[in-house]
Amino acid sequence: MIMDIGSLLATPFEIGSAQLTVGDTLGFITGLLCVWLTAKASIWNFAWAIVNSAILGVVFLDQRLFADSALQIVFIVMSVQGWVQWAKGRSAALQGFRTTSLREQASLLAVAAALSLLLWATLVQLRGSSPPVDAVITALSLCAQWQLNRRQVASWVWWIAVDLVSVPLYWSRGLYLIAGLYVIFLAICVHGLSVWRKTQGTPNKVCEAVPV
Fold first, then answer.
1. What is the pTM of this model?
2. How many domains does the chain divide into?
3. Is residue 126 a part of any domain in this protein?
4. pLDDT tens per residue, the chain (212 residues)?
5. Is residue 12 situated within a structural domain?
6. CB-count exposure of residue 121 (10 Å: 0-12, 13-18, 19+)
């Protein structure tokens, strides 16, 4: 049976003063699986990313975090794209992980800055919650996902930045379990960055790390 939105936002239990919904709990579990599989360079990270984005899209919409909610739709599309790109076969894995040039990073920073300002102005008009922070998280996440799909090691640096901004925002909105999830994300991202750097330029290790 497909869970309706009402059930997803229900509050099944409390921990201290924190009220945890079904959506918070499922978002925590699926998000943890997604990032852990990404750190292991497993193609199945995209499947769990799609499920996680669908759940968090509803949770964030309920919190009036409109940019974060809309971002989940983009994530679903980009995850499908990444899944297809990674599933081209072991020959793709032989290419290993890619570096990002300084010029490309500068371009991405410019895109992130411009997108943040545009989203900020839009969210103010929509009366969303925390427009500037919500906008920055969305812009950084899009740039990070774009690099992840291209198997670029620098994607982890962007995800780390996303986590550092996300934790205080979600905590302030009472999404304690999701905030805790992003703390775990942060630790996994640091580990993922280390692993990808070690296997970068070493095709045999990449083939062993990436199930296809």
1. 0.72
2. 1
3. yes
4. 344 555 555 656 555 555 667 777 788 888 889 888 887 878 898 999 999 999 888 888 887 777 778 888 988 998 898 888 888 754 444 456 778 788 999 999 999 999 999 989 988 888 877 888 989 998 999 999 889 888 888 999 999 999 999 999 888 888 787 788 889 889 988 988 888 888 765 544 433 333 32
5. no
6. exposed
